[in-house]
Amino acid sequence: MILDQPKPRRRSFGRFLWPAIITAAAVVAVVVTSAGDDTRAELAYLDAMHENASDLSTGADALRVVISRLSRVERSELVTATDSLRESLETGLELVETGPVSENLVAANAVYRRALEAWTVGVSGFTSGILAAADDPTDIVVTDNIANALAELRAGDRLYTDLVRELEAEEVPDPVASLPEVLMLPAEGELFTLSQAYVEASRSPNSGIALRPGLQVSSITSDPLWNVDPSDQAVVPATELLNFSVVVGNAGNVASEPEPIELTLSGESDPVVLSEMVPVLEPGEQTAVQFLEIPVIPGALYEVAASLIAITNDVDLEDNVVSVLFEVNDE
């Protein structure tokens, strides 16, 4: 008698396999998402680096133009160009201080930091050296100082070239745009020879780099306002009290010190001498100094003079005095 054999039971793997597949898919998704986040972070860092390098490239171009014109450039142009460049360098140093989130950019970040640090030292040393050379023609140390600054600029240029090469490595994601050229050192050649040439140019008679204190009296007006008659005589309407407004400007290239200005009114009686202080004025800035309620006699002839008493080494004393001869109308 043959007994019926029980049919073998089919094993079910589905309920065990699908959870494993789902788990594996989730892990892959997390890895892909993480990789995508890293790539986006890398590209964001490279974009910030490109933006900063573009600003540095523009600033370096401006600096080279100024340096090529040291024999005839104004002090303000040099200071403006280097100040703008220093701001871009500071921004770059803040970027590398934060650092990239990806290990792929650690080397590039380190090279960029070294380039920025070298440029910062070079720009600062070059600027202070040129200003010192122009301000003191007897200073012989500045030539060495400027040569050292040029060495830093050249080192920064070479490090930046290394950075561009580093970003071409396979593990670094392709940036949206390649880094622009940045060239701080204005010329090739032996550094001490270049330094001598720049010192000589900064001390040229046509150069405006040297400090030039230069307050000047621009004008003087009365209140009531005088008018000029057909005989070129200034005539003030009938009054017994006069106010004067003296406009003083800074025609130099350096901020002035507070300096006294005297107003002298000479006429029928003893001269009246009044004094006020001119405040600190930046180059190109003006101010009006007031002298109020000065007694006068109708019908009398007067001369008013406003004169600066220069404390600093004013380069042009001829523009420190303005005088006007006037008559006070008696009607």
Keywords:
single chain, 331 residues, alpha+beta, Immunoglobulin-like, 2 domains, 6-stranded mixed β-sheet, 3-stranded antiparallel β-sheet, 9 strands, elongated
Can you tell me about this structure?
The protein has 331 residues and is an alpha+beta fold. It has two domains: 18-202, no CATH class; 215-328, Immunoglobulin-like (Sandwich), CATH 2.60.40.10. The chain has helices at 14-68, 75-98, 106-135, 142-166, 191-202, and strands at residues 215-223, 227-228, 234-236, 241-250, 259-266, 272-278, 286-295, 301-308, 321-328. The chain has a six-stranded mixed sheet, with no helix packed on it. The chain has a three-stranded antiparallel sheet with strand order 1-4-7, with no helix packed on it. β5 and β6 form a beta hairpin. The longest helix is centred in the N-terminal third of the chain and has 55 residues, at 14-68. The chain is elongated. The N and C termini lie far apart (158 Å). Mean pLDDT is 85; it is low at 18-35.
Number of strands: 9
Strand content: 15-25%
**What's the end-to-end separation, in Å?**
158 Å
Q: The biggest beta sheet, please?
A: 6 strands, mixed
Evaluate the radius of gyration. Answer: 37 Å
Question: Which structural class do the helices and strands define?
Answer: alpha+beta
Order of neighbouring strands in the sheet with most strands:
2-3-9-8-5-6
Shape: elongated
- In helices, the fraction of residues equals 40-55%
Structural domain tally = 2
- Mean model confidence by pLDDT: 85
